């Protein structure tokens, strides 16, 4: 298939590009390189530098490459930042996708897999989270993604040829097991890479944000899903989508790990007993979030193959060790 991957130079997008190429698809990557990462785009993919606000460039790219499906990963993704800069989040994550969808309509492209998030659920009362759990985002990041889900529904309702899938991610972790591409955010705030920075001396110590949560060990619980499994689900969704379909699926392993358990896994995998201090709770962190991933298993046969946290950490560590400065400016 001819696929346009928007945000294809980022952590998750670059793993999708790698897999799509390995499967024999023709891949065009569009990315604004806001966070660098040009080196994450393989030579076999066509690269177009640009962003979701450039309507003319998207229409031209879709037409020039006879694109059949778009997979969109382009987004701003820091919950805390979204509270401080809501307009940036609505501009990029909502208005940007609106422009992408208008360009798709102009070019006659009717298929999209769009990254959504567990943050659209807010702080549900009951775990695990099913796709029917009411969505009530508690921050602009979650709301910016929730709004796109609604725009996609309305677009599909108006055009029977249009089809979309919204995978709702839980905590994406790990990297390419062969260590060719990795996870590099700037600034880094995600738990596993932060702990790897502490283990490799890139930061002096790490903090656990709160040990007084109503969980068995007092630290927050999240559902960590390996990026390779996550991308496997995207490929399934892309290939399964039929005109008129509107698909929503949770992507998680269905099990929660506490922050302390992740700290232990990183210490074990790296063999380094780095310093971890107890810090205050981070604003906006729900105590516990994990998925019920039954729906996608029953309907499409997907389930996470890698459920062991140490494997996720070991895969992340491989690239991290070989690339201590991340992608740098490249
Ligand atoms: O230095 C750190 C960093 C994180 N944490 C904790 O670790 C857990 C995981 O945090 P993080 O890796 O930042 O992920 P989340 O905040 O859970 O957010 C992820 O998962 C959300 C959906 O669940 C997505 O919306 C976000 O984009 C994605 O980053 C949380 O309890 C944090 O409080 C620490 O204790 N210390």
From TrEMBL:
One of its GO terms (molecular function) is UDP-glucose 4-epimerase activity. Pathway: Carbohydrate metabolism; galactose metabolism. Its cofactor is NAD(+). Signal peptide: none annotated. GO terms for biological process: galactose metabolic process. Residues 3-252 form the NAD-dependent epimerase/dehydratase domain. It catalyses: UDP-alpha-D-glucose = UDP-alpha-D-galactose. Gene3D superfamilies: NAD(P)-binding Rossmann-like Domain, UDP-galactose 4-epimerase, domain 1. Pfam families: Epimerase (PF01370). Its EC number is 5.1.3.2. Keywords: Carbohydrate metabolism, Isomerase, NAD. It comes from the Bacteria. Homodimer. PANTHER family: UDP-ARABINOSE 4-EPIMERASE 1 (PTHR43725:SF53), UDP-GLUCOSE 4-EPIMERASE (PTHR43725). Belongs to the NAD(P)-dependent epimerase/dehydratase family. This is UDP-glucose 4-epimerase. It comes from Algisphaera agarilytica.
């Amino acid at each position: 298939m001819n696929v346009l991957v928007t945000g294809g130079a980022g952590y998750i997008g670059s793993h999708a590009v790698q897999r799509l190429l390995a499967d024999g698809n023709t891949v065009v990557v569009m990315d604004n390189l806001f966070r660098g990462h040009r080196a994450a785009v393989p030579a076999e993919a066509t690269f177009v530098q640009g962003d979701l606000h450039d309507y003319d460039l998207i229409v031209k790219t879709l037409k020039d490459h006879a694109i059949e499906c778009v997979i969109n990963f382009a987004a701003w993704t820091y919950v805390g930042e979204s509270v401080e800069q809501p307009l940036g989040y609505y501009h990029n994550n909502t208005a940007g996708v609106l422009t992408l969808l208008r360009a798709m309509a102009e070019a006659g492209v009717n298929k999209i897999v769009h990254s959504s998030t567990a943050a659209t659920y807010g702080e549900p009362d009951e775990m695990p989270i099913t796709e029917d759990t009411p969505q009530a985002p508690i921050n602009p990041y979650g709301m910016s993604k929730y709004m796109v889900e609604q725009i996609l529904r309305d677009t599909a309702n108006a055009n029977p040829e249009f089809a979309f899938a919204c995978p709702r991610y839980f905590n994406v972790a790990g990297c390419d097991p062969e260590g060719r591409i990795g996870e590099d955010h700037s600034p880094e705030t995600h738990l596993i890479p932060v702990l790897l920075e502490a283990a490799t001396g890139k930061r002096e110590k790490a903090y656990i944000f709160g040990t007084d949560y109503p969980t068995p060990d007092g630290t927050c619980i999240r559902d960590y899903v390996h990026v390779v499994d996550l991308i496997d689900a995207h490929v399934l969704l892309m290939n399964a989508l039929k005109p008129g379909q509107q698909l929503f699926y949770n992507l998680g392993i269905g099990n929660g790990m506490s922050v302390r358990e992740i700290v232990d896994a990183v210490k074990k995998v790296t063999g380094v007993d780095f310093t971890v201090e107890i810090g205050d709770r981070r604003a906006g962190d729900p105590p516990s979030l994990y998925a019920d991933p039954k729906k996608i298993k029953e309907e499409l046969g997907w389930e996470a193959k890698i459920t062991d946290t140490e494997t996720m950490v070991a895969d992340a560590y491989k690239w991290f060790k070989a690339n201590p400065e991340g992608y740098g400016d490249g």
